[in-house]
Amino acid sequence: MTDKTVINKKISPVVIVFLGLLAAIAPLSTDMYLPALPSMTYNFNVSSSMVQLTLTGSLVGMAVGQLFAGPLSDIFGRKPPLIASMLIFSLATAGCFLSDSIYPFLCFRLLQGFFGGAGIVIARAVVRDIASGPELMKLFSMLMLVNGLAPVAAPVIGGQILRFFSWRGIFVLLFIIAVGLTVGSLIFKETLKTTGQGGLKKSLIMYRILMRDTYFMGHCIMQCFAFAAFFAYIAGSSFLFQNVYHLSAQTYSYLFGINGIGFWVSRWLTGLLVSRLAGHAEDWKILRCALILAFAGSIVLFLGLFFQVSVVFIAVVLFVTVSTLSAMGASSFSLAMAAHGKAAGGAAALIGFFSLVSGGLMAPLVGIAGSYTAMPMAIILALGEGGALVVFYKTIYPRHRSEA
Predict the structure, then answer these.
(1) Are 227 and 119 in contact (CB under 8 A)?
(2) Mean of the pLDDT values across residues 327-346?
(3) Which of 4, 148, 151, 352 has the fewest beta carbons closer than 10 A?
(4) What is the pLDDT, as a whole number, of residue 234?
């Protein structure tokens, strides 16, 4: 057992930015190259579903990688697994822009996601190391504010890079970011007090215990449905706006960035509401409102696409629907992690796994009807948001209703 240095409760802005960038690996790895997806179908001479499978490779890799990184960070501390993962993440990113065909590109995307997932889960575990209760919710919301800049900036940057370079230029920039995160991991100070308690066997037992917790698993399954809807939007939005509504890659990147601003505002409002409500026990009300709004928006979106309404209407509905995800994620994470401080790494890993694996599986289904229709995306959005709402009322709401 090794004693580690714990960061002061008053965390420096530099550490928050670093953790925010680690948590933003998912949007950085996906959102930045979204404007290039239609052009990549021609570059690799493959179908749209095949290109969307590159999203699946990254997301599934992240989901599975978190299952390993979570318990390893509980055993060895946060820093050693983070350094190793960021180094390999950098090398896999280099492999992406050096790929000449879709198949090696898919393999490198899988590796990129697997080792990038460590940054996501360890950033969340660090937050749980240094905060609890209402402070956990506030700190996580602050982290998400930094993280929220990625969905705003990444697609816009990707769209501008496409003015001068091919899709490979996007991955060159991502490689530079990955190298910066690797350097930051070397400087980062350990936050876990004690490590090595029980080894890997105890971590596997911990997973079994977590999966028997109906309330905790309710949050995991709920996020599984919600993120399936979200990643259907991620995978299908570029084809919706560029192929169906004939917007340029740059215009699409601006629209996607505006939705990222919605993410940022939603996270800011979540943090504000937490400070106004009567403590951590009221977080579930934010979660319920976010789920209801997202489901209503997904139904309106489906009807709008079915009746072929204007692009402005579709953009506004998507803005409202997608923006709710950040409030849902922050409130659900805070509630799910509240009782699992001693297994923060593993608990964060399970939440991360369920929130990403469904999205990876849904991504290629969005293009199943071809590149010039968005109806599969709309159907998955409605089913995902509806499923999340049902799971909430079946597994999460009963506990809070009885407490009230």
Answers:
(1) no
(2) 76
(3) 4
(4) 82
